[in-house]
Amino acid sequence: MRSWWLSGALALLVWSQGVLAGTVLVVGDSISAAFGLDTAQGWVALLEKRLAERDRDYQVVNASISGDTSAGGLARLPALLDAHRPEVVIIELGGNDGLRGLPPAQLQQNLARMIDSARSRGAQVLLLGMRLPPNYGERYTRAFEAVFSDLAEEKGVALVPFFLEGVGGVPGMMQPDGIHPTADAQPLLLEHAWSALEPLLR
User: Fold this and answer.
1) Are 126 and 156 in contact (CB under 8 A)?
2) Which of 3, 112, 155, 184 is least surrounded by Cβ atoms within 10 Å, i.e. has the fewest?
3) Catalytic-labelled residue, pool 68, 97, 180, 192
4) Catalytic entry in 38, 55, 82, 177
5) Please, are residues 134 and 141 in contact by the beta-carbon 8 Å criterion?
6) SS3 annotation, the chain
7) Is 180 known to be catalytic?
């Protein structure tokens, strides 16, 4: 009888810990997939390490795919929400939409649907904004950048206005392709994300 009680108590403890554990889901592209780097060097891995060091009871699921667009993220999100039931969803998408010259209005619609989908499951959302180099033209780059701030205001979600602030175009911070951050840039990316993420954590 005693062994049965102990087994039941242990099972209850494991179950309760599972209930209490939170999940941060990152849905992004190559910037969050640590393209060209060891995955352990990427900002998402550094985020997981910081949460553990600060005894924050969260696991981090990195569902980022190099080359992904907002349409790809939108298509993948429902299954990710079902599988992981996250408390926080970090959306880092849009860069590839811009590099391909896709309409900003379509990007805004896709991201809005992702935000709505995540929030309908009870998750808080953090949006990581992007900007494009000036060679894409002033009209397009301004419309692209405005997508993120407009969405954050409309939906009332947390925003990092430009995730690559202090990284994009800075010597030593970008890989030779001029698109992907180096390992040295990852701690700064973590700080950008953390400043907006920490208030969302319980």
Assistant:
1) no
2) 3
3) 180
4) 177
5) yes
6) CHHHHHHHHHHHHHHHHHHHCEEEEEEECCCCCCCCCCHHHCHHHHHHHHHHHCCCCEEEEECCCCCCCHHHHHHHHHHHHHHHCCCEEEEECCHHHHHCCCCHHHHHHHHHHHHHHHHHCCCEEEEECCCCCHHHCHHHHHHHHHHHHHHHHHHCCEEECCCCCCCCCCCCCECCCCCCECHHHHHHHHHHHHHHHHHHCC
7) yes
